[in-house]
Amino acid sequence: MLSVASAREKAEKLVEQARAAGADAADAVYVGERSSGVQVRKGALEDVHRSEGEEMGLRVFVGSKSASVASSDLSDEALSALVGRVIAMAGEAPEDPYAGLAPAELLLCGELADLDNWDAIEPDPAALKARALEAESAALAVAGVTNSNGGSASASASTFALATSGGFSGGTRASGHSCSVSVVAGEGSGMQRDYGWHSARHAEDLEDADAIGRRAAERAVARLGNTKIVPGKYPVLFEPRVAGTLLGHFSGAITGSSIARKTSFLQDRLGEQVFAKGVTIHDDPFRKRGIRSRAFDGEGLPVRAMNIVADGVLTTWLATSADARQLGIQPTGHAVRGVSGAPGAGPSNFYLAAGERSREELVAAFPRCILVTELIGQGVNPVTGDYSRGAAGFLIENGEIAGPVAEITIASNLKDMFLTLEPGSDLRFRRGVDAPTVLVPEMTVASA
């Protein structure tokens, strides 16, 4: 894996070669990664692995035609052959009037933001094994747990660099540490499974393995039993672990490509009320040690923190330069990309801001409601917003858990859900997409 400076230099050189070979414009991406991990089960080591790799991608434009290629062979000979190949491919590609690099005048200039995403600590296999064993041991010690699916711990590091013929060159590096465990509670047909997991950029920010294990076990034990429910309309609460999926459906619906293709249930809703008043959804690329923090977007454009939804009103699409040309707007700095293909659009650290009422207050507002702790399957139509998913969780009566529920289906339409949902006050930043407990006042609930 190259240093950031060397990765930038290699990307810049590849762009220069493409231009010299006849490309009107080009950009190049370098991605280098390494990872190591350990898996254990029932106190015994099951697997130790380590991987290292690096790739480069080159995208060229010849007039309004474009093509891209990628290679894991980064020798000078291989990259030179890559240039000739992609130029020939572009000559055979269809015309695309919206294709092209980001406008040069909009590219990021100056120093990159310090995101503090790099941790020099690289645990050895013995340390990873100890962490995985601690998580599993803590889980197995909880009464009611009968089996283990295993525990794991891992560490990773990556370097990313981008260079464009428009004048941008930048690179970043990031690290990652994670720990997880999955256990089974109960016996026979009544068995239930659950898990605990956490990841962080720095090892010192990783949750204690003991806490991860105990949480996994307590969740599995709490799911034992099955409470029958009467099908009908219920208030439904999504706990934070699953509430973020609603933000995933939302972000997919506001990408420029979905809007341009007219395949979004939020088509033509820009500037309109799509969530309840008071709801804020924020995108923060500059969060220190954030899982999705980034100093620039996938086209070399500056990024900025912004409210995607302010007081319930949708304020922007998430658009790459190609999307923006098609929509007649400016690119929004949300391009994301790998080593091959054109960039797509997506948020960075994306979260639903906390509301005023606690989970306990939300639950107490209804004589009966459903708390969803797990979602199963897909069942979401991105064009219409129709929403129907398998779920598991708990029936709550008069503010108290009446018992676990499993194999139920919850259904509504995302447009209605967004307009009526209320966020709880229990927001914590633990993932790239975060939400507090979310209340949807009415959904159709049935046994699966």
Automatic annotation (TrEMBL):
- Residues of the Metalloprotease TldD/E C-terminal domain: 231-446
Q: Which Gene3D superfamilies match?
A: PmbA/TldD superfamily
> According to the lineage, what is the superkingdom?
Bacteria
Domain named Metalloprotease TldD/E N-terminal: residues: 26-90
The family database entries (Pfam families) matched by this protein are listed as: PmbA_TldD_1st, PmbA_TldD_2nd, PmbA_TldD_3rd
The residues covered by the Metalloprotease TldD/E central domain are 121-224
In the record, the note on similarity to other proteins reads: Belongs to the peptidase U62 family.
Name of this chain's protein: Metallopeptidase TldD-related protein
Q: Which organism is it from?
A: Sphingomonas alba
